[in-house]
Amino acid sequence: MAKVMPPPPPAGYVRRAPLLQRIDAVLDRPLTVLQAPGGFGKTTVLADVSRRKKEEGAIVAWLSLDQDDTADVFGHYLARAFEYAGLDLAAISDEDAWSSSPFTQQLGMLARAMELHADPCLLVLDEVELLPPGTVESIGLLLKRGPRNLHVAMAFRANPGLDLAAGLLDGSAVILTARQFRFSRPEIARFFDGALSRRELAVVEERTAGWPVALMLDRNMRAAGAEPPGVEAAGLSENYVGVRLLRGLSKQDRRFVFELALFDWIEADVVDEVLGSSDARLRVSTLSSLDGLLLPVDRGDAVWRLHPLVREYCAARFTVEDPVRKRFLHARIARALARRGHLGPAWRHATSAGDSRLVGELIENVGVFGLWLREGMSGLAAAGRFLTPEIAAMYPRLELLRCVDFQLASRYEEASALYEAVALETRGFVRDRSGGDPEALALDRVLTQAVLAGGTCRFLHNALDSLRPAEVTTGHVGARARFLSIAWHLLRCISCCHRAEFDESRRHGRRARARFADDMRYGEVFASIYLGMVDMVQGRVQGAVEWYRRARRATRDFFPSDPRLATSNDVLSIELDLERNRVKAIQQRTLQGFTELRGTWNEIYAVAVAVRAELALSQYDGRAVIHFLVRTVADVRRMGARSLETYVSALLALYLVRVGRAGEAARVWSDHALPCDASELLDLDGQSWRRMEALSCARVMLLAEQGDPGGAAGLADALCAVASERGMIRTALRGLSLSIAVAHRAGDEDRALSRLVDFLRLLRNVDYVRPLVSQRELSRTLLRRLLGTSLAADLRGAAENALSHLGEPHPSASPELTPRELDVLAGVRRGSRNKEIASVLGISDGGVRYHLKNIYRKTGVSRRVDAVRYAEDKGLLI
Questions:
Q1: Which residues touch 870 (CB under 8 Å, ≥6 apart)?
Q2: CA 192/CA 202 separation, integer angstroms
Q3: Helix or strand (DSSP H, E) at 292
Q4: Cα(41)–Cα(759) distance, rounded to whole angstroms?
Q5: How far apart are CA 290 and CA 294, in angstroms?
Q6: Are 734 and 697 in contact, with CB atoms under 8 Å apart?
Q7: For residues 802 and 773, is the Cβ–Cβ distance under 8 A?
Q8: What is the pLDDT of residues 635-673, one digit of tens each?
Q9: In this structure, are strands 303-306 and 294-296 parallel, antiparallel, or unpaired?
Q10: How confident is the model at residue 588 (pLDDT cuts 50, 70, 90)?
Q11: Cα torsion angle, 471, 474, 478, 480, sign
Q12: Integer Cα distance of 165 and 67 in angstroms
């Protein structure tokens, strides 16, 4: 919450009316900029203005920025800041749409929410200079495209690249610089509570130059009874931080401040553990020289940070005065933070200690699999940045982490070569280093090979048999057994999902989730993703929606800067939208970060490829989708992922048939040696269900185009049978839609209608209508014909709903014609006169005229030919 909350005022804060009045006009102009070096109080003044504007009833969103705020992360926190400030975002977007949208769309949704709010909205951005260039561009976009009632106030030391010239020229923006932030002589007098004589006031003004942090230090020294020295030739920072802060301190307190400067944040129990003390909180609170220089991290007083200028200076001085002690404390901080799960900071401190062995030890203690459970692929990549050849030589297990790092960087050959070298060094992953952990080595090896193999089901299923934890067989659950149990159940969940053993996958996924510790957030997200996929393929739509929502929420809260995880969530949500033919949602979708998924998990990457292909076909044309798939086949071939290459090649063949290029599809099938035999196509032991589905569907379509309706129908029926046996509702619907198309192509309309009825029976319980939409004209024709027959009410409702997805008005909204009226219209269509129709139907001429009048009344037409055309258009006449 600290990122979206203005910090509380420091002790002894003096409100400066002239300065505040200039900034108070933030709601009278689009942009207010505070530009000054560190220590001028930009944050403090902005926070003061923000609090008062909020008290006046304005929407005030605060964002403290840092170097990790990429454009996506910035968009995420921008929403949270406005939501925390009270802006109603639910009025324009649900959480799913926001989290899965690129920044430009998020900006549009946010602008809409502010326009609906109508009253002024203030966005405060602090420390903008820390942002990466891409996020600076996003802020520039925000300034250009923001609504009229958006007002922005920002603070930075130096302009990071924002174009402010136009605003300054037309008066819509104002910049306050260091000159406005310097204390005037009257303000200095008030800052010292009127305790300075005229002469003292003149001296203080001269030596501080009105610099707020220098005044703070000067006041603290006077309160401590120390006499401020004369003006030194050193710069302000060294002069006031180095001399005035430290001069009045005892040797012990000086050392203590130096030691505090090493901590990223000051938390009493961590400081006590590192320093071997028990009074850190008391010592910090009694150091009057730090008044106003210890900044609260939150609204409580449990965690603080030292003012950056003070911290930087003291840490640098510590290096000069006692480098040995400094390295020793860095090592102690590293261990303390690692025990509390702060892994990245711990590794940084170990590196600052210059202790390669400690860096390796801390990373190895977590392990490749443990790190993945906590931080995911981004965490593994982050750990890899701390590894050096020297560290890896001491800890062979960490070479597996480097394998993953190479894979994520698309250095596939290096990843494979290093994996083989580790296998050789560890004698097939059974002998760890002296004092190492062979069991952990075996587990890390499974995850590493899973990443290198893209998580293929055959490898995972076989490898897990040798890792069956004691808890599974004996019921004993210790800390170590619990961790192994989590790993085993989670990987079983993934493996069983691939193999279409969905009940087992669901059981293992739930067991893994029940055992996760609070710091295993990534594992929890991954379990939610796979449980969602299981529900998706089995047609449990609401279950899939809820699991995916949980995954997105956890990603937003704990991994906002992980592009792979965010993209994984996006592709799964889009896939579900596509199956359900949620047209509005599909039209708004764009798949960001697609390339981030290469080299990770094949299952997720396969979804991404299929989703992007379908979006390309829906939003562009056939050439776009073929061009994309041809490039993707080449990419996965370079990756050396044979299973994935087969899948993408099958997709390419399928779309080539769909766009009328069956000859090219046949060449793809031959060139990539794709299977032709039904037993290979439908095999679920050696390939994932997605690959089975893609191959089988593509093969059915190709056989039909090649003039083999019998082979196509047989394979489609076999696909439906396998899908039914495994509970794969999505695959069954795709198989049935292919059966419909094959039967129609062969001229067997009765079979086509029969298979359509089977499709509608499944469609009653799940809204996966996309297979019918993919063959829109055929589906529309057959549904119209089917609705003209005596269809059960529930099937009629499913058929009418399907037609509405095909662009037809809902048939139930049209007047219903009776069977006798349809018989009369059939006679009219044959060209029969009323007497002939009456003779055939066994009714009088007056009866025919009566039915025709009712038909004219219901349809709103007045001619026989128009009544026939109406019934044909509605599919009421076969």
A1: 859, 861
A2: 13
A3: none
A4: 68
A5: 6
A6: yes
A7: no
A8: 888 877 788 899 999 999 999 999 999 999 999 999 999
A9: antiparallel
A10: low
A11: negative
A12: 25
